Amino acid sequence: MKKIFVAAIILTTAISCSKSFLEREPIDRKVEETFYKTPQDALESLVAAYDELQYGDYDNIQLVTEIASDDCFGGGGESDIPWKRWDRFENDNNTNLNNWTKYYTGIYRANIVLSKMDGVNWGSDTTLKTRYLAEAHFLRAYYYFDLVRMFGNVPLVTTPLSPGQYNVPQATPEAVYQLIASDLKFAAANLPAIAYSGIPAAEYGRVTKWAAEALLGRVFLYYTGYYGQNDIAGTVTKQEARTYIDDVVNASGYTLIDSFPRLWQSALSRFAGEDNAETVFAIKFTYKGLGDWNKHDGNRMQVMIGFRNDAVPPYYKGWGAGPVNPKLWEAYETGDTRRAASIISVEAEGLSYPAIYPQKTGFMWKKYMPMMALKAEDFNGDFQIDNFYDYVAIRFADVLLMGAELNLDGDLGKAQQYYNRVRDRAFLDQNHRRILTPGAAGKKLIMDERRFELALEGHRYWDLLRQGVPVAQQAINNTSTDAQFSVSFRPETKGLFQIPQQELNLSNGSLKQNAGWNQ
């Protein structure tokens, strides 16, 4: 398993995390024999586990899965082959290697934290120990959830490995999800129940009880939908999932921002700002890498979706990945404020964009698009690697829609209330509500709402798959007279990604390729 990847065996990499509490001294100047002794050591090892969240650029999971969904195409230039292969479900031996490495590095670092906390001298107050353990459990669950959704059949590693232990066989998805659910339950039970208004600004970006509960809801819906189960491997029931989500809605202090467009940087002076009351959990980024390619402080995904080669004011330049499918723009209802706040229509906004390159649809991402007025160069950064817009991994609107879905066959009134809150904000009135009913019709309304509310935030592909492979295939297939826009989802893959060939070669036969990807 690439020795679960060589990079992950070395914890002593530079910590270059971003804002507030993540700005700590790197631990690459210390040795393990004298480390993990003090609470400060423990914090630094925890920051190393957080640090891996920032990694990723052309292969960022948010970008990759949007390209794989029905809402975007591959984009980029002639040489940007990986994006096109993700779009068309084509073989490419090691396209997914960086994601495999990223997630196992994060898992390794979380396992280090979990294995070393008993050796720290905490004194008489073990409150910090409990919190750090809870955060590490969350991070391990977060990394494993992305990993198992992408690859399905992955090695399950719960302790730091030593030489001779690296060729770990693939576990069943059930076993991996059981660990994820157990980790998140531990985190939810052991993180303090501090409402949003009481969270110190210096701690934005740290895991909270509410993030753990919200992620549990997301994991429940995906696992039970994709695998056709009633609960998460006997670990979390539907009623428990409802309770977790309801707790976030009622006790967390998070809420919807008054105007959907204000959630995004493109609102400029009207931007509600990062860490606003709708941000349940965000991956933090900063420009402070200042052009150092050895650091991963910036949101590298942003430059990938920028207008290729040219700045198109008020938007900034990039590589043109993931042009938006016009079908998404057309699917929004008249009066829905989310359309123009989520997607750039070159024509509708009267933009002058002369560049010619493949897969130019006339529609680009507005969410996460780099902006002329908020560019890295203005802070002495590099436009390719130092974009600093945080990725909101869990948003309160998503929590409400999860709550609506979970309560659809339980408390229909509650489901309707949660659903209405999202619709009312989108249209700025109560005249566009839809009546939810139990069963398939109500579920479809909620899934449609998720598409429009959460467009380009990295959820669409997974939402399609958890409705069943046939649903995903029907949505993703695209027939066009222009061959570059023709896409055929391959159901034999079941939506799973190709395990990197390098990992297979190094595993001594302990890893097997996913169905549909054998050369």
Task: Describe the protein's architecture and organization.
With 519 residues, this protein is mainly alpha-helical. The chain has a domain at 2-32. It has 18 helices and six strands. The protein has helices spanning 6-9, 39-51, 61-68, 81-88, 97-116, 127-151, 173-190, 209-227, 238-251, 300-305, 326-331, 337-342, 396-407, 412-427, 440-453, 460-465, 469-476, 501-506; strands at 279-283, 307-308, 317-318, 343-345, 363-365, 391-395. The strands form three sheets. The protein has a two-stranded antiparallel sheet with strand order 1-6. A two-stranded parallel sheet has the order 2-3. Strands 4-5 form a two-stranded antiparallel sheet. Mean pLDDT is 91; it is low at 1-18.
Which sequence of strands runs across the widest sheet?
1-6
N-to-C series of helices and strands = HHHHHHHHHEHEEHHEEEHHHHHH
Strand count, sense and barrel status of the largest sheet are: 2 strands, antiparallel
CA-based shape: globular
**What's the Cα radius of gyration?**
22 Å
Share of helix among residues? 40-55%
How many helical elements? Answer: 18
Fraction in beta strands: under 5%
Number of strands: 6
User: N- to C-terminal separation?
Assistant: 19 Å
> Unreliable runs, pLDDT <50, ≥5 residues?
1-18
